[in-house]
């Protein structure tokens, strides 16, 4: 039985540069942790509408809105500052979602 992938939105200001780098890093982190994911890219402006179909939203820039999904700031994956902490937060959040699904 294969697990349903966790849907992740990685958003940045333009939806191109930093979200692409962060999205690849998220895919690698989750693959190494054996967590199935589908990673989507977007802009901070589309978070409100896109988050409805996502399990987790990750941003490389500031997002001032409110959403009812876990929000993880992942700029550390690009800058290297606090990278280990961000990686742990991603894995822990994904595992929590997987655990809640199986209850």
Automatic annotation (TrEMBL):
Residue span, PTS EIIB type-2 domain: 6-98
TM stretches of this protein: none
Domain of life assignment: Bacteria
One function term, GO molecular function aspect: protein-N(PI)-phosphohistidine-sugar phosphotransferase activity
GO biological process, one term: phosphoenolpyruvate-dependent sugar phosphotransferase system
PROSITE patterns (alphabetical): PTS_EIIB_TYPE_2 (PS51099)
Keywords, comma-separated and alphabetical: Transferase
Name of the protein described by the UniProt record: PTS system galactitol-specific IIB component
């Amino acid at each position: 039985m294969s697990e349903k992938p966790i849907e992740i939105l990685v958003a940045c200001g333009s939806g191109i540069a930093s979200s692409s780098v962060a999205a690849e890093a998220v895919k690698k982190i989750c693959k190494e942790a054996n967590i199935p994911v589908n990673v989507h890219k977007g802009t901070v402006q589309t978070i409100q509408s896109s988050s409805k179909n996502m399990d987790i939203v990750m941003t490389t820039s500031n997002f001032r809105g409110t959403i009812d999904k876990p929000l993880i700031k992942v700029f550390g994956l690009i800058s290297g500052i606090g990278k280990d902490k961000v990686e742990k937060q991603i894995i822990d959040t994904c595992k929590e979602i997987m655990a809640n699904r199986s209850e």
